[in-house]
Structure formats: C-alpha cells, structure tokens
Amino acid sequence: MTRILHRSIAAALPRAVSGQGVHIGDAEGRSYIDGSGGAAVSCLGHGNAEVLEAMRAQMDRIAYAHTSFFTTDAAESLAERLVRLAPEGLDYVYPVSGGSEAVEAALKMARQYFVEIGQPQRRHIIARRQSYHGNTIGALAAGGNAWRRAQFQPILPETHHVSPCYAYRDQRPDETVEDYAARLAAELEARIIELGPDQVIAFVAEPVVGATMGAVPAVPGYFRRIREVCDRHGVLLILDEVMCGMGRTGSIFACAAEGVRPDLVTIAKGLGGGYQPIGAVMLSERIYRAFADGSGLFQHGHTYIGHPVAAAAADKVVEILSRPGMMEHVQAMGERLQSGLDAALGQSPHVGDIRGRGLFRGIELVADKDDKAPFDPARRIHARVKKEAMARGLLCYPMGGTIDGVRGDHVLLAPPYIIQPEEIDQIVDRLAGAIAAAT
Ligand code: PLP
C-alpha cells in the first residue's frame, strides 16, 4: 500500500534504505552498484562525510533565510567558487532548486534581457529535436522530445526545433565532420532568418545530450559554428549542462571542451550531488549589466532559491570536484568504461553505438546493427534492460527515446566519480548480462 503517486503506478518499487560509496541497499537486503548515479546526480556517491558535515554546520547556523531579505555565506561562497571554475565569461550565478527550474529561469532571463536592452519584439526560442530540458511547462516546451511533449502540446508555449548533432544516425557517408557541423549550423541560421533575426531570443542546447539520446557529444567544431551563427544575429546561446555538467564529462563544465563562450549555462544534478536539490544559472557580465543598468530586478524567483543548506552542500561538492586529480580520475575511469563496453558489447548485433565523454556513456540498442533499425517500441527493451540490470545488482538509466519520430532505446551510464576500476568492470559485466537477457 502506498499513498505516493509514483512516476509509474504499476511498478512495485524496492525501498532504498542505505547508501554508501557507489552502492545503494534496499529493504530486502539487496545491494546495487549505482552505475547511473540515479539520473546522473550522485557524482560523489552516497554517504560523503564531508558534504554531510557541511550541511550540518550550515543547519546549526541557520537553515533558511528568504532571499528577498538576506544573502548567506554559503550562497556567496558557492557563487564565487563556480565563477572561479567556469569558462571565462560566466561571471554571475543565479541559484535555484533543480534543473527544470534552472532552464525556466534561463529562458526568462534571456527574454527579460532583451526587454531591458530595448528589443522587446524578440520572442522565439529555438532548441533541438531529441533534447530534454525539463518537465515544467517552459522547459518542456524548449525540449524536443516528441513523446514527452505529446499530451501537453496544447498548453505549451510555441518553440522551434532544429536537428540535433547526432553523427551516428545523421552524418551522411559522403560528409566530413566539418561539413556535417556546417550543415547543422546552416540549418539553424536558416531557421533564425525564417523567424526574423530580430525576433529570436536564444538557441538552447545540451553540450552532451543526456536523457533523450544517451550521452551524445556534438562533433568537433559544431558549437563554434553555432556560436558564430548566434553572434551574427544577436541571438543568445544557452547551454544546458544540467546533466552533463559538474565534472560528468571529465571537465567541471562540459562546454570547456567546445571552446565557446555561452551567454547562459544551466547546471543542477551533480551540483548538489544528490545531497540537496539545487541548480543554478550562470550568466555573462553582459546579461548581468543589462539588469543592473536597467530595471535592477530579475522578475522571477521561487521561495527556495539560494537555500543555505543546499548551497552549503553544493559548495562542498564543488570544492571536492575541483581537488587535484578528481577530473583526471573521471577521465581515466571513463576511458576504462568505454573500452570495457567496447570489448563486452561491441560485437553484439543489438548494440549500434557506444559513445560519450568522461563518466557519461551511452549505449544505443538496435534491432539490427547493419541498418540501425530501432526495436519495436512494444517490446519496451529499455524497461527490460532496467529490470534485468537490477536483478543483477546494477542501477543503469535506460530510456526509450524518439529518434525523429521513431522510438529507439538506449542505456545511460553515469557512475559516481569515486568509482574504482574493479567496480567499472562489474558495471560492464552486469550490463552485458542484462542486455543479452533483455534483447
Ligand atoms: N536539463 C537537462 C539536460 C536534463 O537532463 C534534465 C533532467 O534530466 C533537466 C534539464 C531537468 O532537471 P530536473 O529533473 O532537475 O528538473
């Protein structure tokens, strides 16, 4: 008997009762290796004593102060730390309580920016098909996942979508990587021109696409070309690092690898490491200035923004992430994971692609490797993989996405950064067994 409206009402969920390191224990005494950090959240694993202590110390001082009355040491320290670690040009932080809230705030910040600088006619948001930016109305509208949007379509604000950067399926055989990136940038530019260049607010994209595609990085040079297109038309570039940020791909900010300066970046998930619900929008001096020299007010705000205990937890998480050797460990473990998956699954007729960066890896499952045909959605392969993996003591994050109208299946792996080589090997073994049993 439950009084909770769970995500899936039919599912009988085990009760999580303990978490230590990379393991979660349930009430039946089973232990699972947390191969996905939940949904790419638990970047430091479970039971981190330093983060717990930072939260306790903050609670002893003050647990909550409303941001219309006070700022706090915890929130100020977190903001300073994030700005120090961010790529140049991200100078300010707007703390929120999660990923969808960060995206909502970024979209509204982008819109208000243009109002502040006297371009109130700008009203269009462009994103990419096959993206996920959250579940609230604005973030859902930005996202391009047809299945998630379908029943809410009538109440979503209008947004526009262009092709994702998805080399495995969309790069043509006669096309170089540069040609492919140029084609996608031209598609974005054509859409901006069609909508009216002075009517477009922002282009939103995940540097490495997570939930809807399974750890798909863009091809080299793609984001630089996108930045050029945005600059030509005065369009803001919002990068959504809610899933791929905070060290997940082997650098604290995923966009550092792309060599571009975004105007706004959203972060969450790994920011609180699962210890507290927290997210943030990082913004450039230019946007901050428009507010400071304009109305002096970002017309937005939720009760729990800048929550001191969440900020204290995140400040400690980010301090740990920035210690020497941490990102190198993520990169080394990520490479071990990729080569383990290649060796165990590379020959499978049902594994089309294994990709990703750092400890953010995706496996695309297909009915037929040769023509890349997805499985029949009725077989719910992703759900079967999840069940088989849990039966083997592994938590992974399989999703049934929509590949340009066709449903497909992939599995996302995003283990905690404290993972050790033998645990990586366990994930690979258990996942290979689960995929073999499910397909
Ligand atoms: N943006 C991206 C890229 C995400 O992956 C997610 C969640 O998976 C969100 C936004 C929404 O974050 P939250 O679930 O914390 O609201």
TrEMBL record:
This is Aminotransferase. It comes from Paracoccus denitrificans (strain Pd 1222). PANTHER family: AMINOTRANSFERASE, AMINOTRANSFERASE CLASS-III. Pfam families: Aminotran_3 (PF00202). Its EC number is 2.6.1.-. Keywords: Aminotransferase, Pyridoxal phosphate, Transferase. It comes from the Bacteria. InterPro entries: Aminotrans_3 (IPR005814), Aminotrans_3_PPA_site (IPR049704), PyrdxlP-dep_Trfase (IPR015424), PyrdxlP-dep_Trfase_major (IPR015421), PyrdxlP-dep_Trfase_small (IPR015422). NCBIfam families: PRK07483.1 (NF005685). GO terms for cellular component: cytosol. The keyword Chloroplast does not apply. Its cofactor is pyridoxal 5'-phosphate. Belongs to the class-III pyridoxal-phosphate-dependent aminotransferase family.
